[in-house]
Structures are given as C-alpha cells and as structure tokens.
C-alpha cells in the first residue's frame, strides 16, 4: 500500500514524487513509456524561475537567453535584451531524467511501461509488464499530460482549447542569445526561433488550425538541415475542477499551460508542490473529503490562478488581432520608455506586472483599443 501514486513521470510527476517522498510519504510513479524523457514534446525554453523550481543542476542547459525579438508580418521589429540571463534552453529529455533521478534519490519508486487505465478511491488500475493489476494507495496525483486518462475516466470536463505544435532543430549559425517570435506565422498563436547552442536553433510553430501547412511554410525561411522534428499538443484553459475522488490533477492534465506561451513547466511544478502539500495533510488527517481536496485548488489559484486568467484573455485577444494591428502594437511597444519597462518588469511566468504597467500608457490603449484594455483591467480587479 502506497501513500501516493503519481501517474506520469514527466517534470510535474517527478516533482510531485520528490516533494511527497521528501515529506516521508511512500510514493510510486507510474510511467507508460519505456524510458523517462521520451517522447520529447516541448520547445525546451524555461524561464530562470521555472528552471529553479525544477531543482536541478545545469547539466541539461544548452544555451542561456537574455531577451527576445518580435518580428511582425509588416516588418516591425520589437527587440529587448536585458543583458542578463532570463531563460535557459534545455535538453528536455536530460532535464526529465535528472528530475526523476532526484525523486528516486528522495525515496520514490518508479515503474516504467505501466499504463494507467482507471482509478477508484485512491487505487489505480494498471496494465504493465506483469499484466493487469490494481495498486492500492491513499491518494493519486495525476500528472498524465494533456490527454489525461484519469480525467476522462472520471468523466471530468476537459480543457476548452487544444493547440497543435511542431518544431524542428536546424542549423542556424547566426542564432545567439535572443529568442525570435513571429506572430504572423500562426493564425492564432506564433512561430519561434530558439537558439540551442553550437550554431543550432529550434524552429517551431503552434496554433489551432492549419499547423502542418503553416509550419512547412515557416521553416522554409531557414533553409535545409533539419536535425530533429517533434510535435505535440498544448491544452489551454484550466479544468473547472482540478480534484476528484482522492485525485489531484497537476500540470497539463489540469490545463495549467500558460496561454501566452504554451509553456507549462513553471505552473506545473508549482502545482505539484501544492498537490504534495495537500496530499500530506489529507494523509496525516486521514480525511479525503472534497473540502479537504479543495485546499489544493485554493493553493494553486492563490499562487498563479490570476496569471492564467490574464494569459487566457491575452490569447483570446491575440486571436482577434489582424497582422496590421500586431504591426501597430509592435511599433508602440518599441518606444524606449516602454521597452525599458518590459526589460525591467517583464516576466515569462507572471506577465500581469508588465501588462498592468503598459496598460497605463495612452499609446498602448490607442493601439489595443479602449474596450480591450478595459476588459483586461477588469481581470486585475476580479
């Protein structure tokens, strides 16, 4: 009998397992794949805060990033370079493995090739190398990704938007310390070029429609030389309820990907921490009612819930922006005084601070439109 079963051996699952094991709980991690870290379905760009939350060494780091360059379809360029490290480009498979190793060192047990097909009252039904079995536990932490089996098993409502993404690693001798963003490459999201060190770059695109065609067109700009192609899905929109029947949902399984970037490591690992705290409390009290589990939801909402709301509003606004409007916004944000604010207050994980600041600028209000600005401001007062 385990205290906690963690479903999924990605960063969120390994983080939850480590936090629980360090608290003295008996933990089992069930991972459906044959090895930790594969398949890779991530751009591999982590903010400094997200990287710190992972509690790993820098051995997975390929490249440090100090800023970004946004290139609109009309040719406007918005560039900001802080002159210091703001993010890391990592080998995601290596990062995942190190996080799993750290969880195992803390006492968590891992089982690979173990497919979870259902659960009830903390017990998990698994198809693995030993055949079908039921494993008993007090609680479950579901870190089983955007296609969460457990959320479907429980009949819980899923995320409202699913985006598709594709990325290739290409030769790019001129790519150094800035991430390049191309809003016009996607109908409702953006394309990117992420420097990956040693003259390489990760060129990718995410969106809701026409992603394969858009990606093919986008990557032609960078010539031949594809090294590796990956694809995946990004769920946007938090589940209405992130707990059920002794189960707490974390990371992409709960819909915690940031709508501004599609990244989910920071919010995912933060949610894993809150889930482990709640699991420990429930087990110590031997109480697993909805009111006990709801403390998890209260915690993550108090931590990053508003940022996800702000991000979703920005995403929905982005879907309605024409290329011409994006061009106008880039020109306004290129003003030296606004650029200085972006460099000082910009945060990949918590964009609320810089958004609140720029919304005070008359030029920004004019570029975005008064109605859109008022709608965004309403989130801050809610």
Automatic annotation (TrEMBL):
<feature type="domain" description="FAD-binding">
    <location>
        <begin position="2"/>
        <end position="159"/>
    </location>
</feature>
<protein>
    <submittedName>
        <fullName>NAD(P)/FAD-dependent oxidoreductase</fullName>
    </submittedName>
</protein>
<dbReference type="InterPro" id="IPR011777">
    <property type="entry name" value="Geranylgeranyl_Rdtase_fam"/>
</dbReference>
<dbReference type="Pfam" id="PF01494">
    <property type="entry name" value="FAD_binding_3"/>
</dbReference>
<dbReference type="GO" id="GO:0071949">
    <property type="term" value="F:FAD binding"/>
</dbReference>
<dbReference type="InterPro" id="IPR002938">
    <property type="entry name" value="FAD-bd"/>
</dbReference>
<dbReference type="GO" id="GO:0016628">
    <property type="term" value="F:oxidoreductase activity, acting on the CH-CH group of donors, NAD or NADP as acceptor"/>
</dbReference>
<dbReference type="InterPro" id="IPR050407">
    <property type="entry name" value="Geranylgeranyl_reductase"/>
</dbReference>
<dbReference type="InterPro" id="IPR036188">
    <property type="entry name" value="FAD/NAD-bd_sf"/>
</dbReference>
